[in-house]
Write a structure and sequence with these properties.
The complex is a heterodimer of chains A (428) and B (273).
Chain A: E1 2-15, H1 18-21, H2 25-31, E2 42-55, E3 59-63, H3 70-78, E4 85-90, E5 94-97, H4 110-120, H5 125-139, H6 154-167, E6 172-176, H7 186-199, E7 203-207, H8 211-217, E8 220-225, E9 228-233, H9 235-268, H10 271-275, E10 277-278, E11 283-291, E12 300-301, E13 307-319, E14 323-330, E15 335-340, E16 351-361, E17 369-378, E18 384-396
Parallel strand pairs in A: 3-7, 3-8, 5-6, 6-7, 12-18
Antiparallel strand pairs in A: 1-2, 1-4, 8-9, 10-18, 11-13, 13-16, 14-15, 14-17, 17-18
Helix pairs in contact in A: 4-5, 4-6, 5-6
Chain B: H1 2-13, H2 15-29, H3 39-58, H4 70-101, H5 103-108, H6 115-141, H7 153-177, H8 181-195, H9 205-209, H10 211-219, H11 221-235, H12 241-265, H13 269-272
Helix pairs in contact in B: 2-6, 3-4, 3-6, 4-6, 4-7, 4-8, 4-11, 6-7, 7-11, 7-12, 11-12
Classes of the chains: A alpha/beta (428), B mainly alpha (273).
Chain lengths: 428, 273
């Protein structure tokens, strides 16, 4: 049995050009194109031929980037937006947590708003009377319930909205990212309520950017991209595929930015570049390449990947006193790691002509973020031949959102009495 | 047509919501004021006072119709002012804004959009109803007697209701796409007010003697509605059934047309407000 059934659902938004906005009724009348100006200039496919079923009693997650059509999908299921073509079938009473407190009137009290909002959500007055105490208690607003809603903080506002919507006690609950604004103590309470829903075998359609919550509570997940279903199925698989895509996109963006910077420098031989490079270049670093351990040049790394820094160097005379150094800085300019051949007990003998220096790091062990690289050739006393300050950068990206500047290799272990369930694959 | 009929049937299911929203409007309007609900009575009274002082005393518009008496003139004024200013003009102007102001409801909640102009018309109608006893109290005070024709008031009110609702639908839907309707409307309503026999009687020689003016005034549906009020309360005469009937039909056609346009545009509201 399915609670929600979508068949070839398409929703086209009519987009009016910016020029249209300023078109006035007067000018429409004068030009005699009143009806023409009511016609849209462009059509946007917010949802494109979407079909899937949600079984009764399951929790179904929808993920995707901003603008991929998640919210539109929810609105169509809720009946707020109409599908342009295709069919939506929903069994049972629907309650939508799309925006909490959307129907509140600021001038009247919380108590009165509970009744109005409840009726808008499809409750009868009697039902609201019965649930009134629960609603107020859950929202923790006993003291403020007779104050006008305009005096509420945004947290109180949200709590009241959530409390009403959840107490509608629907068969199908639609949740759209509403938990993003709650405070630390209220969000778990809301998640508890949603859990409770699942236990009572109600159907939930859950839209969120919080992938760990999605993975935790959903039985099935659909990934929307540009209004189409990209993948659908078991949460872990879909989320991994989605993250893969996001990472690739981040890499593309990063590389594009990198290219743009290079191009700019190419044209202008920028001041900044000269400022960030110093030394007389008796021993020059001509080119720096970042590679993965497999030898492919890249700029985006995962924390458990290794990195190879290759430097093409050339000494224009015989030099006996030289040191190679590198430094990795994070985006706040903090030195994450710095070393050189002198510190690591290499004694320079002699160099002349071209050569290549390779620094191989087996594992980066860094947290997510952009990092900048310093490379240098200098004398033992610090006199620089060629110093490149933050001229190279790379991105570390992973699905874990751990914090800090360094990630030591680690594992967790729990004794028997402590029961834990991992909902993320720990392959690092 | 059938679609519209089904829609209006569905609307019936939302009567509790309409009722709640109307009471919300009424409650919210005078929140934070000291006199609170008294304003519903005070507003029409002050309105009457201003118009009586300006037209009755300062401009000295003492028409033979009212035996040159400012008191009778004031009563005559009140008959038209109350339904026009407190109900009709207020509802139409408010409708032009209502979808934009309540955009949140349209975008985020499952509420049939047509409820919003309906709530506007009803809540202003209720303000008018609050003012009606004041008007009736002043009938003997200002020198007229009650007549049985007062019983026809509900008929006139019904005609005005249908007419006002039709305009409200039209205005609220179109303003979403043409924001300047709001500003045009303010002036248009004022013009309409002065071209309707409210501060002057229909029997004014200028109207009666000039054929074109006479026809224009007769073509104005609000003329007949206002005349209806004046007949029931001031003149104590039978309302003109034929004319009011035609006005009712015009109102009905306008209502269907307005609802039709509203329905056509409804899907564009969530994106545009």
């Amino acid at each position: 049995m399915h609670a929600i059934k979508l068949e070839n659902l398409t929703r086209i938004y009519q987009k009016y050009s910016a020029q249209h906005r300023f078109k006035t009724f007067k000018s429409a009348l004068l030009k005699g194109d009143l009806f023409r100006s009511l016609r849209p200039d462009e059509l946007v496919h917010a949802l494109d031929d979407i079909s899937f079923d949600v079984e009764t009693g399951t929790t179904f997650g929808v993920i995707g980037e901003n603008g991929s059509g998640k919210s539109t999908l929810l609105k169509v299921v809720a009946g707020i937006a109409k599908p342009t073509s295709g069919r939506v079938e929903v069994r049972g009473k629907v309650s939508a947590l799309i925006e909490l407190g959307a129907g509140f009137h600021p001038e009247i009290t919380g108590r009165e708003n509970i009744f109005i909002n409840g009726i808008m959500l499809g409750l009868t007055k009697k039902q609201i009377h019965e649930r009134y105490d629960d609603i107020v208690r859950f929202a923790e607003l006993e003291e403020f319930i007779d104050a006008p809603v305009k005096t509420y903080s945004s947290g109180m506002y949200m709590r009241l909205g959530f409390s009403i919507a959840i107490n509608v006690n629907p068969d199908v609950l639609l949740v759209d990212e509403v938990l993003a604004v709650g405070d630390a103590s209220f969000v778990p309470k809301c998640l508890d309520r949603i859990d409770d829903f699942r236990r009572r075998k109600k159907t939930i359609l859950f839209v969120s950017h919080d992938l760990s919550t999605v993975e935790k509570i959903c039985d099935h997940v659909a990934w929307l991209k540009h209004g189409r279903v990209q993948t659908i199925g078991e949460p872990r698989r879909v989320i991994d595929a989605y993250l893969q895509d996001v990472t690739e996109k981040a890499e593309d963006d990063f590389e594009q930015r990198q290219q743009e910077i290079e191009q700019e420098e190419h044209f202008e031989e920028t001041e900044e570049r000269r400022e960030n490079r110093w030394g007389k270049r008796e021993f020059e670093i001509k080119k720096v390449r970042l590679k993965g351990l497999e030898g492919k040049e890249k700029q985006v790394f995962s924390p458990d990947e290794g990195m190879i820094i290759e430097m093409d160097v050339e000494a224009y005379s015989r030099i006996q006193d030289f040191v190679f150094g590198i430094g990795i800085f994070n985006s706040q300019g903090i030195l994450v790691y710095g070393t050189n051949t002198l510190l690591e007990k290499y004694a320079a003998v002699e160099v002349h002509g071209q050569g290549m220096v390779v620094c191989r790091m087996e594992r980066l062990n860094l947290v997510n973020g952009t990092y900048y690289l310093d490379v240098a050739t200098h004398k033992r006393d610090g006199y620089p031949y060629d110093y490149h300050r933050s001229l190279y950068s790379f991105l570390v990206s992973s699905r874990l959102t751990d914090d800090g500047i360094f990630r030591p290799d680690h594992t967790w272990e729990f004794s028997e009495k402590i029961r834990m369930k991992s909902y993320v694959r720990h392959d690092t | 047509m059938l679609r519209l009929l089904n829609r209006s049937k569905e609307l019936y299911k939302y009567r509790v919501l309409i009722q709640t929203l109307v009471s919300r409007e009424l409650k919210a309007r005078y929140r934070g004021t000291i006199l609170g609900f008294l304003w519903s009575f005070l507003n029409p009274l002050l309105l009457l006072l201003v118009y009586t002082v300006v037209f009755g005393f300062i401009l000295g518009a003492r028409l033979p119709e009212f035996n040159e008496s400012p008191k009778l003139y004031a009563l005559f004024l009140f008959c038209g002012l109350l339904p026009w200013q407190v109900w009709f003009a207020a509802a139409v102007l408010e409708s032009s804004n209502v979808l934009l102001i309540q955009g949140n409801l349209i975008k985020k909640m499952l509420v049939p959009t047509e409820i919003l102009p309906i709530v506007v018309v009803i809540s202003n109608f209720i303000h008018f109803l609050f003012g009606l006893p004041i008007l009736l109290i002043f009938v003997p005070i200002l020198g007229k007697a009650y007549t049985p024709y007062l019983l026809f008031l509900p008929v006139v009110i019904l005609v005005q209701f249908v007419f006002t609702l039709g305009i409200s639908f039209l205005v609220s839907a179109l303003t979403v796409h043409f924001r300047d309707i709001k500003d045009i409307l303010v002036n248009l309503i004022t013009l309409w007010f002065f071209s309707t026999p409210i501060i002057y009687p229909l029997t004014l020689p200028v109207i009666q003697n000039n054929k074109i003016v006479h026809t224009l005034v007769q073509l104005n549906p609000m003329t007949h509605i206002m005349w209806g009020y004046q007949n029931c309360i001031f003149y104590g005469e039978l309302i003109r059934w034929k004319r009011l009937g035609v006005t009712f039909l015009v109102g009905l056609v306008l209502l269907i047309f307005g609802y039709y346009i509203f329905d056509k545009l409804r899907d564009s509201f969530p994106e545009e407000v």
